[in-house]
Amino acid sequence: MWNRREVLRGGVCLSAAGGLTLSGLARAQPALLNGNATIVSGFPAGGMGDNVARPIAEKLRGRYANAVLADNRTGAGGRIAVEYVKRAAPDGLTILQIPSSPMVLYPHIYKKLNYDPLVDFVPVSSAVSYAFSFTAGPGVPAEVKTVADYIKWARANPKQANYGIPAAGSALHFAGMLLQKAAGIDMTSVAYRGGAPLLNDVLGGQVPVSFNVIGEVMSYIKAGKLRSLGVTSAQRSPFLPDVPTLAEQGFKDIAIQEWLGWFVPARTPADTVRQLNTQVREALQVPDYVAALAGFGLQPLHQTPEEFARVVKADFDRWAPLVRATGFTAED
C-alpha cells in the first residue's frame, strides 16, 4: 500500500469517440478484479472526458474487471466526483477520471475543500494533455491578430475588455487573470457554465475574447470563424502550429497545459494500481485511438504511477504562488 509520505517524495509517486474500439492489444492478462468497475467523471456526458474514458472502458472490460462502466457525477466543478471516489472502497473498482484543476488548483483557491488530493488518492495514470487558446471572435476588429493587438484594443475600449471562461476558478480563468496582470490592463471575466455556451457567445460576438480548450475551437479557427491570438502551452500546439505561444509574445510566465488523469482511493493495493496503469497506457498507444484523440485536440501521455505522482505534486506546488499573486479565492 502507498502512504502520503511515499506519494510526496515521488516514490509512488471527453462523446464516445464515434464508437471507437481499441484492438491489437496483448492478450496475456492478470486475473480480473472481483466485481464491476466504474470510471467516475465530474463533467457531463458527451464532453472531453467521454472522448477519453469510454473507449478505454471498452478496453478494460473483461481484462481488468468483468464490466467497466462510465459514470458522470457532475457538479461543483468536478468536486462532487472527487468526493465520491474518496469515499469509495480502496479495491480498484471505483476510478476517478478528472482534469488537473480539481486536484492541483482547487486546494489553493477554496477555503474549505472536503478532500486532500495528496493524501486521499493514489495517482494511477495520466491520460491526455491539452492546452488553451486565447481566442478572438467577431466582437473585436479583424485587425486584432496577436496578444499585443488585443492589449492595444482593450486599452482603447476598456468597457468592452471582457473575456469569457467556461467556469470561474478554472485554469482558464487564471490564464486570463495572469495575462491582465502581466499586461497591466483591466479585463472583466465572464464565467459560463461550460465551454459550449461560451463558444456560442464568442461566435456571436457577445463576448469579444475567451480562453478555451484548443480542441473546442480549433475547427472554427481553421475555418476562419475565430482567431487564436496565442496558446498557453510552453511550446506551440501541434494542432495550431502557426499560432505563437503567449510566452513567445512576451508573457513567459503564462505556460499552462492541463492533463486529464486517473486516480483511485488511498490504500488501493499497489498491484491493482500497477495493473490499471498498464492497461490504460496500452490503450493510449493504439494508433486509431491516438488519431481519434488528436481530432479532439488531445495528446496522449504515457506515464507510470510514479511519474504521474511527481507531476501531480509539482503542479500542486506550482499553482500555489500563482494563485497568491492574483489574490483570488473561490466561493464555496
Overview of the structural elements:
With 332 residues, the protein is of the alpha/beta class. It folds into two domains: 4-129 and 258-326, Bordetella uptake gene, domain 1 (D-Maltodextrin-Binding Protein, domain 2, 3-Layer(aba) Sandwich); 131-231, D-Maltodextrin-Binding Protein, domain 2 (3-Layer(aba) Sandwich), CATH 3.40.190. 37% of the residues lie in helices and 18% in strands. The protein is built from eleven helices and ten strands. Strands 1, 2, 3, 4, 5, 6, 7, 8, 9 and 10 form a ten-stranded mixed sheet that branches. β1, α2 and β2 (68-72) form a beta-alpha-beta unit. It starts with a helix and ends in a 6-residue tail after the last helix.
Question: Would you summarize the structure shown here?
Answer:
By secondary structure, this protein is an alpha/beta fold.
Q: What is the number of helices? A: 11
Question: Terminal Cα separation, in Å?
Answer: 33 Å
The CATH superfamily title of the largest domain: Bordetella uptake gene, domain 1
* Overall tally of structural domains: 2
CATH class category label of the largest domain: Alpha Beta
> What would you call the quaternary organization?
single chain
CATH topology of the largest domain: D-Maltodextrin-Binding Protein, domain 2
- The helix/strand class is alpha/beta
Query: How many runs of DSSP E, i.e. beta strands?
Result: 10
Gyration radius over CA:
20 Å
Order of helices and strands: HEHEHEHEHEHEHEHEEHHEH
**Nearest-integer average pLDDT:** 89
Estimate the helix proportion, in percent: 25-40%
The largest pleated sheet is described as: 10 strands, mixed
**Known CATH architecture of the largest domain:** 3-Layer(aba) Sandwich
Low-confidence stretches: 1-27
Which of globular, elongated, flat, extended, rod-shaped describes the shape? Answer: globular
Determine the strand fraction and express it as a percent band: 15-25%
